[in-house]
Amino acid sequence: MSGRVLLTGGAGYIGSHTCVELVEAGFEVVILDNFSNARRDVIDRLEVLTGAPVICHEADVLDRDALDRVFAAHDFDAVVHFAGKKAVGESVAQPLDYFHTNCTGFSNLLQAMDRAGVRRVVFSSTATVYGKPEVLPYPEDHPLRPESPYAANKLVCENLLRQVKAADDRWSYGILRYFNPAGAHPSALIGEDPNDIPNNLMPYIAKVATGELPCLRVFGDDYDTPDGTGVRDYIHVVDLARGHVQSLKLLIGQDQSHIVNLSTGQGFSVLDMLRAYERACGKELPYEVVGRRAGDLAAFWGDPSRARDLLGFETTRDLDDMCATSWAWVSRRKNS
Ligand code: WQD
C-alpha cells in the first residue's frame, strides 16, 4: 500500500518511530513539528534510518497560514496527528495552555485539512480518557471519565472527530488509545529524549542507569497489586508505531473509522520494570519507596482484542526488549 502522509509532531518520540515504520511500509512521509519537545538532529537520524530525504516543515498547528502552506505544497492522503502537550501533571498546572495547544491546535488542523480536501486522520489519544477502571482490562466501550486536563483534552478531540464525521461522512478517523509507551528503536539512533527531569517511569530509570539521576523514587508500595507498586500496560514504541501503520492502512484502504486500544493486555509493576532494567544494564539500580503520587491509579491495562480483530495488530516485544532498547539508546546518547 502507498500514500502520502503528514505526521504532525513527527520529530517527537512516538512520531519519529512512526515515521520509520511508515516509510518501511511504503508510505511517503512529511513531518510538521515546532520542535518544542524534539531536537532538530532527529531529522538527520531519520534520514539515516529511512535511507531517504525526510521533508520537515518547522511549524505549529496553531499557525493557520503555515498549515495552509504545507497542505498546498503536498497532496496528502491522510494525516497522523501527534503534535501536542502530554504531561499529565503539567496539564493540571497549565490547563489553558493545554487546551489551546491540544484542542484549538487540533481544530485548526482539521479545518486546514477540510480546506485542502484531506479527510482521513489517525489521532493519538490516551487510555487515561477512561479514568478510574470499572472493569479491567479496559475495553474500548468502558465509560469515559477523564481525571486530568490532559485526558479531558484528548476526549474533547475524540468527540470533535465523531461530530465532524456525523456532519460530513467524507471524513474517516482512527482513534488510538495508547497505554504506556516505552523503549527505543533497535538501531539506538532514535528514542525518548526528554529535555528535563522525566515524569514517566522508564526514562527516569534510564537516567538513574546512566548516572544522570541518583535514585528512583517509587511512588508508593501500598497499592492493592502483587508487590504493592503501580501496575501499567507498557507497550514497545516500535509496536506502537506499527499500530499506526495498521490504522492508516484501514483508513486509506477502506475508509473504515475505528477506535482501538494500543496495548499488550498485560500489566507490569514498577519493580518489575526496575528489575528488567537492571537485567538490561547489568547493574543494580538504587531506589527508595516514597509516598504515592497524586492522581495515580493503582493498576490498569488494556484489552487488545479489538485492535487485533480490526487492524490485525498484535504486540511482539516484551518488557526486556523495551529495557534493552532503551538502555542501548541512552548509552549511545550519553556518549554522543
Ligand atoms: C507509571 C508507574 C507511577 C515515575 C502517563 C500518562 C499517560 C501516558 C503515559 C501520555 C506509576 C510509577 C513513575 C517515577 C514511579 N502519557 N512511577 N516513579 O502515569 O501511568 O501514564 O504516561 O499519553 O497519559 O498519564 O505513567 O510512567 O508516569 O507512571 O514510581 O519516577 O510508575 O506511580 O505507577 P502513567 P508513568
Description of the structure:
The protein is of the alpha/beta class. The protein has a domain at 4-187 and 235-265 and 303-316: Rossmann fold. The chain is built from eleven helices and 13 strands. It has helices spanning 13-24, 41-50, 64-73, 88-93, 95-116, 149-167, 201-209, 237-254, 270-281, 305-311, 319-335, and strands at 4-8, 28-33, 55-58, 78-81, 120-126, 172-178, 180-182, 216-219, 231-232, 234-236, 258-262, 268-269, 287-290. Strands 3-2-1-4-5-6-11 form a seven-stranded parallel sheet, sandwiched between helices. It has a two-stranded parallel sheet with strand order 7-10. It is globular and about 55 Å long. Residues 86, 88, 126, 128, 178, 180, 199-201, 204, 217-219, 230, 232, 270, 293, 296 line the site of UDP-4-deoxy-4-formamido-beta-L-arabinopyranose.
Order of helices and strands, N to C?
EHEHEHEHHEHEEHEEEHEEHEHH
Which stretches are poorly predicted, pLDDT < 50 over at least 5 residues? none
CATH topology type of the domain at 4-187 and 235-265 and 303-316? Rossmann fold
Could you state the CATH homologous superfamily of the domain at 4-187 and 235-265 and 303-316?
NAD(P)-binding Rossmann-like Domain
Number of DSSP helical runs: 11
Q: Any chance you could write out the topology, listing elements then pairs?
A:
Layout: E1 4-8, H1 13-24, E2 28-33, H2 41-50, E3 55-58, H3 64-73, E4 78-81, H4 88-93, H5 95-116, E5 120-126, H6 149-167, E6 172-178, E7 180-182, H7 201-209, E8 216-219, E9 231-232, E10 234-236, H8 237-254, E11 258-262, E12 268-269, H9 270-281, E13 287-290, H10 305-311, H11 319-335
Parallel strand pairs: 1-2, 1-4, 2-3, 4-5, 5-6, 6-11, 7-10, 8-13
Antiparallel strand pairs: 9-12
Bound molecules: UDP-4-deoxy-4-formamido-beta-L-arabinopyranose.
